[in-house]
Write a structure and sequence with these properties.
- With 533 residues, the chain is of the alpha/beta class.
- 36% of the residues lie in helices and 16% in strands.
- It has 20 helices and 18 strands.
- The chain has helices at 4-14, 29-32, 47-61, 72-88, 135-147, 169-177, 188-200, 210-214, 218-228, 260-266, 305-310, 321-331, 357-366, 382-389, 407-418, 430-435, 439-445, 461-469, 485-491, 502-514, and strands at residues 19-22, 40-43, 65-69, 92-98, 125-127, 154-159, 204-208, 232-234, 252-255, 272-276, 297-302, 315-318, 373-377, 397-398, 424-429, 451-456, 496-499, 520-525.
- Strands 2-1-3-4-6-5 form a 6-stranded parallel sheet, sandwiched between helices. Strands 9-8-7-10-11-12 form a 6-stranded parallel sheet.
- α20 links the parallel β17 and β18 (520-525).
- The structure holds thiamine diphosphate (TPP).
- Thiamine diphosphate (TPP) binds at residues 80, 378-380, 403-406, 429-432, 435, 457, 459-463.
């Protein structure tokens, strides 16, 4: 007899899903009992952490990734992370334990009441199978939902007595064998028309979004920009959750501002705005103005029908971003337009103790390793980071697409697990770090050689900046006095030190990045302020 559990483990093997990110409870133990040696269980100490690690792992590996959560309270803790994963289009297959079937209706302890509702609206599909025999098929369906475009989390609640039940072998075998793919080339006639529009435009511009990287369209985006001499902006704000175009490329002109008025003003003079692989646009804050510059039209290419439908302006073509770009490169000729002017290098920041956020990012740029990956959640230094690192390889940058804190510090560990050959540096505000701080234990316990750079300014700086913008004064809760992240790190087993000048930081980072026996944490004391360059 094959059990539901055996059939499900075979399904996970067939999809290469042998790493499980989880936090166990008694309702999950039957699935985890005697986990075979070819499976790896990565323990996170709180569910937001579990999901954040899995999110980073799924994005960096491009593979569906299994998250196993404890029934109602575990899923509840995870919801913020699931919201991030949906915005990040991370293909997570989330399973959670449930009370035994005989005790669900009477709502015995650990019943996940209305289990499928809990993670809504952040999952693409949510299900509790009606029979134990349906578990492998339900998980297979969740895998397909998670990986079909747009990628994102799918959820299955599994009563704990299902695992030892007898599987329906024919169903399980067929579920395991199915290959479901969803990369579709957009309508060739639409693409041909778009190629002509680009060629004939007087002053077209490309907005590069995160799905260029996720879809493997990076080199095609570069080829299109070079052929058509397009200036390239990175998509604004949280739509810059991944980098879609090399930021040291002569055609790259910067990151768009995220509010309506300034965004349209920045694009003034362009007659065709081509947005590729991005939400149009996750505006914030609200600074009204026209959506488009005078005389401009906009065309977006996205694999996400919802993104296409909800955009407030312009046309959209739905289909795989990488394949669309390849087709456009083939169709578009060489333009003899003048290319954009290259961006100047950022100025050297003045010496100071404590250093500025710009100086901290200059130190990081100085020691930036070959193949390095930045995972960022450092609000007041986010612009300085982009401007100084100018990351220029695929898969080099991750931040939350929804702005939900707690993603960065956890995703840094997941990205490093998925990319063991590339050094990961996680740049985190001291406030942001606390949302997922227990991930430091996982990093130490699993010897994940990620470098955490924590920027300590003793405040929620960006909220002070927003207070000014919103003309709010006297809001409580914006100061973080005495928050010693190095002491916390040491308690979790991560070697940590504090520095306050650029030179000290350069040295500390050089050592921390070179260490390959486990994580290191460097806390940089930085001055209060917003650091834009
Ligand atoms: C889960 C969650 N809670 C609260 C917020 C609101 N928030 C946005 S930025 C921020 C402060 C971040 O502080 P820190 O990481 O120290 O960075 P700084 O602004 O000082 O650079 C907060 C609390 C959020 N985005 N996500």
């Amino acid at each position: 007899m094959t059990t539901v559990r055996e059939a499900t483990l075979e399904l996970f093997r067939a999809h290469g899903m042998t790493t499980i990110f989880g936090n166990p409870g008694s309702t999950e133990l039957p699935m985890l009992a005697d986990l075979p040696d070819d499976f790896r269980y990565v323990l996170g100490l709180q569910e937001l952490v579990v999901v954040g690690m899995a999110d980073g792992y799924a994005q960096a590996s491009g593979r569906p990734t299994h998250v196993n959560l404890h029934t109602a309270p575990g899923v509840g803790n995870a919801v913020g992370g699931i919201g991030n994963a949906k915005a990040n289009k991370a293909p997570l297959v989330i399973t959670a334990g449930q009370q035994v079937r005989a005790q669900v209706t009477i709502e015995a302890l650990l019943t996940n009441r209305d289990a499928t509702v809990g993670p809504q609206p952040y999952v693409k599909w949510s299900h509790e199978p009606p029979r134990a025999q349906d578990v492998p098929g339900a998980i297979a369906r969740a895998i397909h939902h998670a990986t079909l475009p747009p990628r994102g989390p799918a959820f299955v609640s599994i009563p704990m007595d299902d695992w030892d039940a007898e599987a329906d072998e024919d169903r399980a075998l067929n579920a395991r064998r199915r290959v479901v793919t969803g990369r579709t080339v957009p309508d060739p006639a639409e693409l041909a028309q778009l190629a002509t529009l680009i060629e004939e435009a007087r002053n077209p511009v490309l907005i590069a979004g995160p799905d260029i990287d996720a879809s493997g369209g990076w080199y095609a985006a570069v080829a299109l920009a070079e052929k058509q001499r397009l200036p390239v902006w990175a998509s604004p704000g949280t739509a810059s959750s991944r980098i879609g175009f090399p930021e040291n490329h002569p055609n790259f002109v910067g990151v768009l501002p995220p509010a309506i008025g300034p965004l349209a003003q920045t694009l003034d003079g362009h007659d065709l705005i081509l947005v590729v692989g991005s939400h149009v646009f996750p505006y914030y804050p609200y600074i009204p103005g026209p959506l488009l510059p005078e005389g401009a039209s906009l065309v977006a290419i996205t694999s996400d029908p919802d993104e296409a439908a909800r955009a407030p302006m312009g046309d959209a073509i739905v289909g795989d971003v990488g394949l669309a770009l390849q087709t456009l490169v083939e169709l578009a000729g060489n333009s003899d337009r003048n290319g954009p002017e290259s961006r100047p290098a950022p100025p050297d920041p003045p010496e100071a103790d404590p250093m500025s956020g710009s100086a901290a990012m200059a130190a990081l740029a100085e020691v930036w390793p070959d193949g390095g990956i930045a995972v960022a959640e450092a609000p007041s230094s986010a612009s300085a980071l982009r401007n100084r690192l100018r990351l220029s390889e695929p898969g080099s940058y991750y931040q939350s697409a929804s702005g939900g804190l707690g993603f960065g510090i956890c995703a840094g560990v997941g990205v490093q697990l998925a990319e063991p050959g590339r050094p990961v540096v996680c740049v985190i505000g001291e406030g942001s770090a606390q949302y997922g701080i227990t991930v430091l234990w996982t990093a130490a316990a699993y010897k994940v050689p990620v470098t955490f750079l924590v920027l300590r300014n003793a405040e929620y700086m960006i909220l002070k900046w927003f207070s000014e913008f919103e003309q709010v004064s006297g809001a409580p809760g914006l100061e973080l006095p005495g928050l010693d992240t190095t002491a916390v790190a040491r308690a979790y087993g991560v070697p940590a030190e504090t520095v306050s000048t650029r030179d000290q930081l350069t040295e500390a980072l050089r050592e921390a990045i070179a260490a390959d026996d486990g994580p290191r944490l460097v806390e940089a004391r930085v001055a209060s302020g917003m650091w834009f360059e």
